[in-house]
Design a protein that fits this description.
CATH superfamily: Cysteine protease Prp
CATH architecture: 2-Layer Sandwich
Structural class: alpha+beta
Strand content: 25-35%
Number of helices: 2
Strand order of the largest sheet: 3-4-2-1-5
CATH topology: Alpha-Beta Plaits
Helix content: 25-40%
Length: 110
């Protein structure tokens, strides 16, 4: 089971997210559910860093990904980051809709 946690501030901005576990929907290396979530969450992290030059804090290990944005983003960068992060959420929800038995999704305010 893949567990995805989205953490938002009081203004509903995503401040951090984490992904834990494996879907186990198919053999290792052939699991399209794991691959889909990995691509969505890692590409989001790369876009935040490479396109917006956000100095994100992150960890990546087997079955674990964590990404945290700094608190002091300008309004312009925050708006652009929200578009990238919202796109990730759309992709995650679409994947979860097709493979709900393999993905738990939590979206909460901290």
């Amino acid at each position: 089971m893949i567990k995805i946690h989205i953490y938002r501030d009081q203004e509903k901005n995503i401040m951090q997210y984490s992904v834990e576990g494996h879907a186990n929907a198919a053999e290792y290396g052939s699991d399209i559910v794991c691959a889909s979530i990995s691509i969505l969450t890692q590409t989001t992290m790369l876009a935040l860093y490479e396109l917006l030059s956000i100095d994100i804090a992150y960890e990546i290990e087997d079955g674990w990904l964590y990404c945290k944005l700094p608190d002091n983003l300008s309004n312009d960068i925050r708006e652009k980051a929200n578009l990238i992060l919202d796109t990730m959420i759309i992709g995650i929800k679409g994947t979860q809709g097709m493979y709900q038995e393999y993905i738990e999704f939590y979206d909460e305010e901290v």
